[in-house]
Amino acid sequence: MARFQSEKLKQEIVLRDPVHGYIHIEDKVIFDIVKSKEFQRMRRIKQLGPVSYVFPGGTHTRFEHNLGVYELTRRICDIFAKKYPSIIPGDGLWGDDNRLLVECAGLLHDIGHGPYSHTFEHLFGTNHEKIGQKIIKDPNTEINKALKQVAPNFPEQVASVIAKTYPNPQVVKMISSQADADRMDYLQRDAYFTGVNYGRFDLSHILRVIRPYQGGICFTNNGMHAVEDYIVSRYQMYQQVYFHRVGRSMEVILHHLLERAQDIYKEGNLKVTPSLAKFLAGNWTLEDYLKLDDGVMETNFLMWTEAQDPILSDLAKRYLYRKPLASIRIDEETKNLLPKLKNLIKQAGFNPDYYTATNSAFDEPYDAYKPTGKNANSQIEIMQDDGSLIELSQLSPLVRALNGTFQGDERFFFPKTMLSHNEDQPQIFEPLYEQFQKYIKNGALRYLRRPRKK
C-alpha cells in the first residue's frame, strides 16, 4: 500500500485548545487544509445547533471539533507507532505509513456538515458524509488541491476512509467506531462548553490502554474500567444534553419553520436569500451548499419574522426568540389519543401540521452502546492476556445493564397555551384548554378511562 508523506512545516504550529491543551500541526497538508475556505466555513456552523437554547455556553463550532479529532488521531498514531509498530506484514500491528491518511481523514470527517445538520438533512435529503466526500474529491475545492499535493490519488484515499471502504480497518475505526477519536472529542468538548460534567471521562487512561489488532482497534484488559467510564459518560450526555426536551422542541420548531418556508416558496411568495432559495427549490449544487452556514440561515429567519404569512412569521419568532413548544411523554398505547389532542389544538386556532409533532429520542441520532444490531460491526473489544478478544458487555455488568435499555423517550409537542389560560387568548378557548389538560398527568399522556383489553 502506498506510503503517503507530506512536506513538513519549517516550524511546528501549536494551537491552544480548551479541551486538549494543545493541537500540534507539523505537516504542510494539514495546515493547508485548515486554511482552506471550505474548512474555515466550519467556524460558522455550531456543533450542537439548537442545544445552545438550553445550555447557553454550547455555541462551539464544528471547526474546533474537527481540529480536536485530528489531534486525538495524531496522539493515537504516536502511541501505536511507539508501542505497537508493525514488524512484519500481516502481524496486526500498526503501520505508520497510514498516519498522514488517517490524520487527514480525522481532520475532514465532518467537513460535509451543514447548518442545523440533522434537521437540514431530514428536510432537504442531504447526507453530510456523502457531501463531505464530494468536497474532498471535487477538483474545484481548495481542500482537494491541498490533498493532491501529497499524491494524485490521495483525495480518493481520504474519502474512502470517511466512506468506511478503505481496506485497513484500523484506519477506519480510529475515526469511526464505538470508541473513536470523533466520539472521544465531542463528548469532552460538548461537556466543557455546555458546562456539564456528564461527558467527562478519563481520556488519558483510555489512550494508555488503546491498541491496534488485525481487525481494528481494541483496549487492553487492564483498561476495562476506563472504557466503562467512557460508556457511562456517553449515556449521561445523551440523557441530559442531546435528548433534552427543550432542545428537541426547538428542533421541532426549526423543522416546521423550514417546512413552512418550503411550502410558501413553491407558491412564489417568499423573500429568501439566493443561497437558501436553491435548496427550497431542490436544485442546489455543491457550490451552493458551501455558501450555507448558521449566519445565512438566521438572516432568513430574521426576514421571515416580518413575513405576511402568519404561521411563518410566528415560527420564525419562536425559533429566534426561544419560545419552545411544550411536550408530554407518549407511548404506543396512548398514541391513539393524539388525533383527539390535535383536534383540540386546531379548535384553539393552531394548525396542527405546524404546531404539533411527535419526536422520538430512542437511539437517534445517538446510542449509549449497542454491541449487536446496527452497530455490531463496531463492538468495543477487550484484549485478554492471551490475545483473545471479548466484547465489552460480556465482561462488564455495568455496560451489560445499559445495553438494550431505552436511551430516550417519545414525546408529543404542542403550543404551551394549551396547558394554561393565556390572557392574550379569547376566553372562548378556556374549555378547550381544560379538556386538553384532562389527558395529561405527571408530564405524560393518559386515557381518561383505560380502554378495555380485548
UniProtKB/TrEMBL annotation:
SMART domains: HDc (SM00471). Residues 62-187 form the HD domain. Gene3D superfamilies: Hypothetical protein af1432. PANTHER family: DEOXYNUCLEOSIDE TRIPHOSPHATE TRIPHOSPHOHYDROLASE, DEOXYNUCLEOSIDE TRIPHOSPHATE TRIPHOSPHOHYDROLASE SAMHD1. It comes from Lactobacillus kitasatonis. Pfam families: HD, HD_assoc_2. This is HD domain-containing protein. CDD domains: HDc.
